[in-house]
Amino acid sequence: MPFATTHTVSLAGAVGHVIDVQADVSPGQVATVLVGRPDAALNESRDRCRMAILNSGLDWPATRRTTILLSPADLPKRGTHYDLAIAVAVLGATRWVPAEALRGVLFIGELTLAGGLRSVPGVLPMVLAASQRGFRHVVLPEPQAHEASMVPGMEVLGMRSLAQVVAELRGELVPEAPPVAAMSSSRLLSWRGAERLDDVDLADLAGMEDTRYAVEVAAAGGHHLLLSGPKGSGKTSIAERIPGILPDLTREESIELTAVHSLAGALEPGDGLMTRPPFAAPHHDASTASLVGGGSGTVRPGEISRAHCGVLLLDEFPLFRADVINALRQPLESGDISVARAEESVVLPARSIVVLAANPCPCGDFHADASIDRCKCREVQRRDYRRKVTGPITDRIDITRHLAAPTPTAGRDPLAVRESSATVRARVTAARERQAERYAGEGWRLNGHAPGPALSSLWPLTPAGSELVDDQLWKGRLTRRGVTRVHRLAWTVADLGGTDRPGTREVEVALRLRSGDPLLSSTLRRVS
Amino acid sequence: MTSDGDRLARLVLSKVFEPGDARVAELVTHLGAEALLTSLRDQQDVAGLLTDASERLAAADDAQRDLDRAARLGIRWVVPGDPEWPSSLDDLDAAETLDRTGGAPLGVWVRGSVRLSELAAPVAIVGARSATTYGEAAAAELAAEVTRAGSAVVSGAAYGIDQAAHRGALAARGPTIAVLACGADRVYPAAHRELLAHLAEHGAIVAEVGLGCAPMRQRFLSRNRLIAALARGTVVVEAAARSGAINTAGWTVRLGRPLMAVPGPLSSATSEGTHQLIRDGAATLVTRGEHVLEAVAPMGEHTTEPVRGADRPRDLLPSREQRLLEAVPVAHPAPVESIARTAGIGVEEAQQLLWSLARRRWVEQLPRGWRLADGAGPQ
Question: Over chain B, what is the mean pLDDT?
Fold first, then answer.
């Protein structure tokens, strides 16, 4: 029976499906047929496999008909990582490798014409998906062995060439082969940005107590944040310090985030699981595809997914294109992003703390105080700009803060708060632990993600606190959506303060955070 | 000029009576402190004071020991006639009393490097303990601005506006004075230990009550009259409708000194008191340090230029030309007749004005008529 089956994984976004690769070599018109909805890159796999097999000193069935089926056959498949599975399946059908050696083994890798293996993006999510389906063995390009071994319980075999794989499967001595190059990544270009953030600390910023408290709440409860203020008021400085006050990622979060970066091809071979929350600050020229994901061929995760479990800063966000801003609605609300393609819809995780920063006008110099106003914009430009600030996106933002123009006073104040990121992180971590305990077994981890109905039925405010919220609703100062956001914020304020249930004090703070009103100084006074 | 006897007698009296007892202040003015003390010790019930005094009188005889202890703590007892005595406090004797509180203090305890007699145009900046970060920032900025101009800041030592005002002044390296409702050696509120330490080093801490005395409600009210009296004028930054800051504002009015208030957001409960002061016409609205300086400085020393929008070049044209320009279209040119009709100006004159404006590049002539030149459009 000239027939063999191997396994690999097809990725749609971060969702993986195990694919059976079946090769049949039998008499008939001589040809190599690949069926099961391959894309162009995958169709070329036939030629890569044939040459790789021949150049590895093995036989390609040149006198018979070779049929390769990728099943399930109705799932569209794209990418080049199928090469190894296809080549091994053909070799299995021609009895070069024993069929029993293929059982329960996952093959991932692209082949060169010389028979060498090449690295491919997305190894971690592929192996994760296979692991959930019960696979325990994976064969893949050597530089990616480390990435695959992050998946617990997986036996990983990193190989350099097809010949090595065949020898291993036949139980023979593995021949020498030149090492496989790691995937080129964008790291070389962006390393400065990544490293720079390691050195920033909240202690660098004097004063800004109001904003400090707001980012602490945002970090503790996973709330989105809008910072508005004139140029130089510290919006960016404080936003890029938010990752520093977030606790280390949980193991679950680490794997999710690392999988997304693997899809983006942005993992270095030596990198372990990503354990610190990421930070992304795309420029306002960014396209929808680069922000939310997309591209031709395989869907590449956008910045919002690469900032999963971390912070996404959209600086000068009214300058972003309208379609880009609209594309943010879904991830702001649901924590994931679906990218619709011609034939499929791909879902990627996108649960970051979104920080929108806006100037008061396009030039950034507008000031309500006429004596220091240096704005050069026309009134109509200012109106346009402000209209974008108060769009459907800002309704989905929990916290609004207005920053004042910087004055020398705060910097010289001998008693200005200069708490370090570590101090704040300890409080944020404690608040997150309280949430984890409360929401154990639920589908969310933080107050910012808790659904409104669950909050009002299972974790309500105190009666007095509810009354305060109702009061604002009746006065028209709060929308229905706003009520839920205030409820979530009130819980985070309670968690930071160590209160068992949010009451009037917490609601009062939440209302101020939501509306942009200045906080009461008593909120900021900490019991030391 | 001040005898040691008067000094000590004032000290004893300050220990016997609660601060701001208007009866005591008046008797001291008329009889002298020593004479009043002697009468009381002789069990003479002067103006019904003896009942209040009898319990404390016996225990209040160790005035010299208080002075020695204060000296060890770097605290001085300043009485009228001393070179450091701020004469602005004497105005309290003439001011109307409030709930039987009033009159100049018998003396004040002072701790810190700044001498009260050397304060230039001091400004009181007061407000709510439960302030907002908006109010705190406003208080700090005002304090920094007035101290940079050479003024001193006077306030309490409470949370909220008081501490923000001191911090603003400290940031500007200006003199700042806290008047306490408790002893000058005490730290109240406890969280302000560091603030008070800074004030003792770079400013001054003033108290009317003796060392070790506790802050009590009545003492806050009498303390407020000292804040108002030490300053040339008072700024209320944020205050609820009934609050200590409004009380201080009342003393400022009684003393006939300028009262100012900083406005807040319309809906802000923490600004209700200040808005009320402005509505009542009791306080002048201030938003900047220069407004405050203008109010407290001797007439004409600080004047503020009124804020106005920058003149647009078009505003400087003669009114007929402005009127005509309004009628000239931005994009699609119009013939002179239509422009003249829209502007309500005769065709002859319109033609003259258009040529004149065209020479100055306000308008341009195209085959189909006139329109505004680039850059002359509506701003």
Answer: 90
Q: Which residues contact A474 (CB under 8 A, 6 or more apart)?
A: none
In chain B, residues with a C-beta closer than 8 Å to the C-beta of A412 are 171-173
Does residue A108 contact residue A147 with C-beta atoms inside 8 Å?
A: no
B131 chain-A contacts, CB cut-off 8 A: 520-521
User: Phi/psi class of residue A234: alpha, beta or left (left: φ > 0; alpha: ψ in -120 to 50)?
Assistant: left
| Angstroms from B379 CA to nearest CA on chain A | 7
pLDDT score, position A190: 46
pLDDT in tens, A242-272: 999 999 998 888 888 888 888 887 776 666 6
Determine phi and psi for A470, rounding to 5 degrees. Answer: -55, -45
In chain A, which residue's Cα lies nearest the Cα of B310? A370
B269 in A contact zone (CB under 8 Å)? no
Answer yes or no: do B239 and B321 share one domain.
no
Asked whether the beta carbons of A348 and A336 are under 8 A apart, the reply is yes
Summarised one tens digit per residue, pLDDT across range A325-376 is: 888 888 888 888 888 776 667 788 899 999 999 988 888 777 766 667 777 7
* pLDDT 10s digits, A171-192: 999 999 999 888 765 444 444 4
Q: A–B: how many Cβ contacts below 8 A?
A: 76
* Judgement on whether residues B105 and B226 belong to the same structural domain of the protein: yes
Task: Provide the CATH number for the domain around residue B240.
Answer: 3.40.50.450
Same domain, B218 and B344: no
Report the chain A residue with the minimal C-alpha distance to residue B142: A409
Tell me the chain B residues in contact with residue A520 when contact means C-beta distances shorter than 8 Å: 130-133, 270
Query: Do B177 and B121 contact (CB within 8 A), yes or no?
Result: no
Q: What ipTM score was computed for the predicted complex, to two decimals? A: 0.77
Whether B171 and A369 lie within 8 Å, measured CB to CB: no
Structural domains counted in chain A? 2
Q: Which residue range is the domain that position A162 belongs to?
A: 3-170
Compare CB distances from B171 to A371, A379, A412 and report the shortest one's residue: A412
Residue A147 and residue A194 in one domain = no
- A166 and A246 in a single domain? The answer is no
Q: In terms of CA atoms, which chain A residue is nearest residue B168? A: A409
**Listed ranges A255-264, B311-320, B333-342; the one with the highest mean pLDDT:** B333-342
Are residues B319 and B254 part of one domain?
no
Find the mean pLDDT for residues B302-318: 72
Of A410, A431, A457, the last residue of a domain is A410
Percent of chain A scored above 70 by pLDDT? Answer: 93
Q: A197, exposed or middle or buried, with CB in 10 Å at 0-12, 13-18, 19+?
A: middle
Q: Kindly state whether residue B118 falls inside one of the protein's structural domains.
A: yes
Interface test with B, best of A417, A521, A522, A524 (most B CBs within 10 A): A521
Tokens at A252, concatenated: 């679950």
